[in-house]
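Human: For the file, kindly provide a plain-text protein record giving the amino acid sequence and the C-alpha cells, at your earliest convenience.
Assistant:
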Amino acid sequence: MNHEEQIKVAEQALANVPVEMVPFSQLALSPLNVRKAEPDPVKLQELADTIKAVGVLHNLIVHRLPDGHLGAAAGGRRFRALNILLSAGAITAEYAVPVKVVDDDMAEEISAIENFEVEGMHPADQIMSFSRISAKGKTASEIGAAMGYSTTHVQKFLRLAGMAPSLLAELAEDKINVDQLQALSASEDHERQLNTWQNAYGIYKTPKELRNEVLRGEVAAAGNRLLEFVGRDAYEKAGGGFRFDLFTDEGFISDTVLLQTLTRQKLTEIADGIAQAEGWKWSEGRTDGISNYGDDAQKYLLLNLPHGELTPDESARFDALDKQLEVLSEQDDSDDADHDALEQAADACQAEMSAIEKTAENRAWTDDVRANGGVVVSLKGNVISVRRGVMLRSDIPEIEKKAGVNNTIASIRTEGDAPEVSQAKPLSAVLAKSLSSERTLAVQAALSAQPQMALVIFVHDCLKSTFDHGSHALSTLKVTLNAKTGLMLDNAPTSADGLAMQHLTAMHDAWQKLLPEDWHKSWDWLLTWDTQQLIAIMGYCLAKTLDGASERLSDKDGKAGKDLEPVEALLNFTLRDWWQPTKANFFGRISKELISDSLSQAGLGGASRDVLKMKKGDAAERAEEDISQTRWVPECLLPVTDTPVLPESDAVMAADSNGSATDTQVTETPSESTHIAA
C-alpha cells in the first residue's frame, strides 16, 4: 500500500467523525502516539512559527485519557509546537485547537498511519507500534497492508520486540542498529544477548560476528536442569542434538535455544492447567523465576501472599505435626539418638506443614484477584516453582477503575516463595534496597556529626573531577543539591523511628533554628559566620547527599550498601551503634531457615533450632528479642574486613538455657548530644 492509499484509509476511517474545537489546556500527549523519538527541534520551531502565523490547519486525532484530558495520538508535532507557543506567551491555555475524538484502537492505528506517511518512523517506534497492534489481534500481513510494509518486515520487527529491553532502549538512542539487533536475536536468552553486545568491539560488532558469538558455547548435558526437566528423548525428538568427545559420556547440548523453548513450552502447559483449574486470568511459563527487580519490575507487580485460614481438619493436622516436631527435637537432644533419621522425620513434618499452609494460602486468593491476575510457573533449581498473584503493570490502570479490586493490590513482596538455593543472593531486591538504605541513613548520621570528614570526602571528589579527567572512580558523595535522606526513608519506611533518623532530625531542627528569617533570599548573613560554623553546616548538608542504596547485593561478596565501606572506615563507624535488626526491618522479611541461620551466626544455637518449629511470625519475634541482646547484624551489612561480633558469653548462655531474652543488655549507643557551633 503506497502513501496515497494509506491516506485514503485514514480519511475513510475519520470521515464521519466531526471536528471539535477544544482549549489547548484540555490536551495532553497520548501514550498511544507511536512516535516516541523527539522531533527535529529546528523543524519543530518552524512548525510553531507557521501555526503562530496561520493557525492549526489540520485537526489533531485525540482520545480520552483516564484523567479526563484528550490525548493527542496523531498530531504530536502540532501539540509540541503549540506547547512552544504557550511557553513563549504567543498563545494562552484557552487557545482553540481543532480535534477529532476517536476510540483508543482507532487512535493508535491512525497515529501509525500518519507517522509512517509524514516521515519514516524510527525502528524502535516501529517495533513498539507493531507489537501493540499485534497484541490486539492483527496479523503481520494485516499490519503490513495497513502501514505499507511487507509482511516479512513486520514479522522481523515483531520478533525483535522480544529482545532484552535495554537493547531496545539502545536502539531508540541509535547505539545499536536493526541488523545488529537481529543478529543478537538468534538467542532468546536476554542475558546472553546483553553479554555478547556489551563485550563486542570493533569488527566484532558486525552482524555476522555478533550472531556467531551469541550462539557460541555448548552446555554440558550431564546434570543440566532443563534437560532433566524436558527429558532427553523429547529434546532429541524435537531435533536437538549433542556433541560428544573423549572426556564426556553424556555430551554437550548443541541447541540451547531449542532446549529453552521446550522448557518454556512444558512450563507453560503446567501454568495453563493451574490457571484454568483455579480461575486465573492469564498464565506464563519461564525458565527463571520471576523477580521484583530489573526488567521484571517494569512489567510485573507481585502481590503480597494472602494469609490463608486453615480448615478445622487442617488446623488439627498442623497442631499434631507441630507436637511431633517437639518430640523429635527432644529425642534429637539425646547423645545416642539416630540424628539422621530424626532429621529426616523432622524434614517430613516441616514439608507437610508447609504444604498445608501453602494450600490455605492458595485458597485465600480472592476471586477478583484471580480474575485480573496471573500465575507464573518456573524452575528454581530442579524444582517447579509456582508464583500466583502476579499482575501485569499494563493492566493496572484498567484494574484500578474496578470497584474493590484496587484494594487487593498490595506492595511488592519482599521475600521469595521459598528459600533461595543460591547463597550469593539470599535477599530480595526490595529487602536489599531497604537494608542498604538503613545502612546509608546510619552513615549519614555518623558523618553529619563529623563535618571535617565530610569536607575531606568532598574535596577528594572535587580533586578527582578536576585533576583526573580520565578517572572511572565514582564520586563518594552525590552532590546534586538534593538530600537523599527522604529517598532512603522511602526505601526503608521502618527506619523512620530509628536512632539514625532521630539524630538527623535533631540536627536538622537545631540548624534550622539558627537560620534567620528569609535566609534563602540572600547569603549576606552567612558572611557573619566563622569558618568553623560554615564547615559544620556544610558537613551536615553534604552528609545527607550520601546514597548507598542498591537493589542488588554486590556480586563478589554479597554486601548491601558496599559503596559505604570507605566512608565507614574513615569514621571508625560501627553499624550496630546505630541500627539493630527487628521483625519489621529484617526477620519478618526473610524465610524461617534464614532466621535460624541468623540466630546461629549470633551464637544462639538453641534459639536457632527453636524457631524452625515455630510459625513464621513467632519466629521473627523470637529472633528480634534474642538478637537485641547481642551486637549481631546481618553479614551482608558488615564491611568485608569485619567479622560478625558475637554476644557476650553470659548473654548467650542465658538466652540458650532460658529460651527467651534475659535482663542482660549488651548495647552501645552514641552520645545523644549534638554539638553545633553557635
